[in-house]
Amino acid sequence: MPRVLIRIGALLAAIALLSGSWSATADQRSEALEPFTGYLMAHFTGEHSNGEQIYFAHSRDGLHWNDLNDGAPVLLSTVGTRGVRDPALVRSPGGDRYWIIATDLRIANGITFDDAATKGSKSLVVWESTDLVNWSEPRLLNVAGDIPDAGDAWAPEAIYNPATNDYVLYWATNATLNGVKKHRIYYVRTTDFRTITSPVLYIDRDAGRGIIDTQIIESPSSVGGYRYYRASADGHITVEGSNSILGSWTTIGNLSHMGISNGTGGGNVVEGPMWVQFNDRDEWALWLDQYATGSGYMPITSTNLGSTRNFTTITDYSLGGTRKRHGSVLNLTAAEESRVLAKWGTTTPTNRIQSYNFQDRHVRHYNFDVRVDPTVSPVQDAQFRVVPGLAGTGTVSFQSVNFPGYYLRHSDFDFVLAYNDGTDLFKADATFEQVAGLASSDWKSFRSYNFPDRYIRHYNFQLRLDPITDAIARADATFRLTS
């Protein structure tokens, strides 16, 4: 959310939040007026099995990023396609409400991009929060259902519009207009991301040129001559300026002189333009996803967006351990940053799980099966983060280090490494009570949360969940957590 809107958030909240669905308290308004101290990025990581979910990363300077939640997803979609891409973070003017809106699409389900574009979801996935850390269950918002011949709803963004006292929610839909089927940008207006106006065509490029990824940022001081700037992937990366979100826009230029395009100009082919204004100065970064080479996001920076010739490339940046795909960045106040880091910023130590009666062996996953092996390679296959139990307090769960979001769980009393699908059954199957070792009180055993008469044990070096009835079984069910 642009900084000028945050600064006037208290006034807007006091006089004009007409929807009646939410209001800002005095404390929340004062928080929203605080200086920004950090940055939060929401993103997805790719088309692998857990990549199309919501991930968070944090930065102090807007250029060097650290993965939050140990690199695992922070939110899982359980609606629609059960996957999300292209998340956008939205803050209310008063700083008392936040939304994440995202594309309802999961390529990992086996759908092709062509099918997803012609017969995909016409809805977006929405989460809502009052504090950035406690989020509602996801819900679907049908934005493209009233667009004739609509095939999808991709890459959503939203920006608060003070001219109309609501949000302009915009996205790309592949539909036929004037005999030409292609992606164009449409918008609706909303106050609560539940009730929306009818969709209206927002951006349509000439001839058969489609446009998918568009993101708008506000220049609080109109540096460069415009109050708003937008960058779009339309064959080039086109930058435009305007003094009104829903008014006329002027083309400023593209990045072809830098050898950067969205395909039409060749060179470094990128997508997913993502704006960030630096907290302490009138300077902007435009992050571009180098998807064609799989190289991830790169930033270019400018202190004057009035000309694309003002952009420069930089090399002093880092993106953390996970690949960042099309997302958005929210500038954080100190209070927001503190809450986010308290929730997801602590790095959980890694552990190995050593067998009591075969002390040269450790629990490891191999092709998502779980067993105890000596000399594990790669070593990360035998490394886990012992985290608070997914299903109950005072319990533990074991998250894989090299497959963040995957946990040890029992299935038909056999153990597998599986992706957390968010269901109650998964949480129960992946949760254990840590007790004194059945064969030695100096070690540990792990009782099942949902089958409390059974324990984790190895049998023929395979990990199982079994009742423990004799001395051999007690030794098989005894382990030690090591570094």
Automatic annotation (TrEMBL):
Supply the InterPro entries for this chain.
Answer: AbfB_ABD, AbfB_ABD_sf, GH43_arabinanases, Glyco_hydro_beta-prop_sf
Q: Which GO terms describe its molecular function?
A: hydrolase activity
Leader sequence residues: 1-26
Short name of one Pfam family for this protein?
Answer: AbfB
Per UniProt, residues of the Alpha-L-arabinofuranosidase B arabinose-binding domain are 352-480
Keywords, A to Z, come to: Hydrolase, Signal
In Swiss-Prot or TrEMBL terms, this protein is called Glycoside hydrolase family 43 protein
State if Signal is listed as a keyword: yes
Q: What is the source species? A: Saccharothrix hoggarensis
